[in-house]
């Protein structure tokens, strides 16, 4: 599961909008990935929800035990083993309970950690049907222990008889008996000898593993056949993941770990004297690459370019048009059509037709959020077309039963923007919006913004002493058409101290907007380190530039 997905699911759980299916998905990710488990626990502790999850019925002991085990663990393998053992014993004790009757709403309310148990029980009696696709090449390396191995021994003795009969018609002698007696005596010794010996070295070569499946979830296949944890990949086998919840973790012999998300296809991994080559034809791959010898790099090849890795933490996203490489640690060289760019930690680049091969910052000075990037929750916001906007689409606020001064944590409807931002930069918040002014314009000119896990330079006067980072922007209707605002939109109003935001930690961030007044339209949110004065009404944020 990608960091973006984990972050969004955590936020949905925190607000009580997570679906049962997504709750199980997050629970499986907690069980299968130590980093995800640590992140979930850290964020839940931060917001106070871990304490709520522990105050339950007798399941609470299990949750408390989970947290204590996680703090006390010395190695991931020991913790996961002990954790899974307890889950299996609980599952056997409850095997008679019907899956459909599990109280999903209670599990969601009790917390993500308790839902791990529900996810295990829900998956206990269900085995997904799979369709085995026929492979064009001979799959002899995949089936060394099945019936085809003993069958060739008796088969060679039967063919010599028909072969002996073939020359008989050409010869005038009609006596088949002497020919059958003599020829089998000459043929058996050479025929059985080389045939058993020939496949033996072939099987040994093909069975040499280049990677092992460490963890698996959902529909994962090796050469089109269902795969299982512990299965080995050779230099002649390919791997693919299917449905949206399918994921797999691979461990290479040098300690390199690869993570494949849903709808990802990996060709045969080739290891040789010039290094390791991994063909990624589509999908998303994350890699924690062990340090490689200088003359034997690890290369990840896509249809659009190659990433040459010496030892780093990276993420690759491949679609039909391009390949996006993000570097979290170390250095990586991305090459396309004889052109290369070197990426350091905190940078990304895109390779594809019509895309310049440039190193860009994962911690930019300018972050631009258009309405089309928002995820709408509830019914108060709607995406509508507006040719006056920068992208042609805006978010329009509808009616709401809440007042502007109501605390945002109790409000179930909002639009969320998710983006990557650093913790060491302070951004000024610019909002481009307008009001349709249906009725009194002074009741149609407010909208509320809330950056989560962040600190604002000033508190909104609408919320008094309440502990919140929500801020009410005013004066949307003060100017006809779209206007850029930094806290307020009244042109004649004296500029107050700038409204800025600084995030608590580097990573994926959320910024939400809530309806203040109906009929307000939001076009773009621009977080800027460099834009100190109010932009003109038609000014667009700067495009991405080379780092």
Determine Rg (CA atoms, Å). 31 Å
Low-confidence stretches: 49-63, 72-80, 93-115, 117-189
Number of helices: 13
Instruction: Profile the largest sheet.
Output: 18 strands, mixed
Mean pLDDT: 75
Instruction: Give the C-level CATH assignment of the largest domain.
Output: Mainly Beta
The helicity comes to 10-25%
CATH topology of the largest domain: Jelly Rolls
| Relevant CATH superfamily of the largest domain | Galactose-binding domain-like
What is the straight-line distance between the termini?
Answer: 28 Å
Cα shape: elongated
CATH architecture of the largest domain: Sandwich
The count of strands amounts to 31
Strand content: 25-35%
Supply the helix-strand structural class: alpha+beta
Tally of structural domains: 4
Word description of this protein:
- The protein is an alpha+beta fold and 547 residues long.
- The protein folds into four domains: 3-124, no CATH class; 144-203, no CATH class; 209-361, Jelly Rolls; 366-528, Sandwich (Jelly Rolls).
- It has 13 helices and 31 strands.
- It has an 18-stranded mixed sheet that branches. Strands 19, 21, 22, 24, 26, 28, 29 and 31 form an eight-stranded antiparallel sheet that branches.
- Strand 11 and strand 12 form a beta hairpin.
- Helix 1 crosses helix 2.
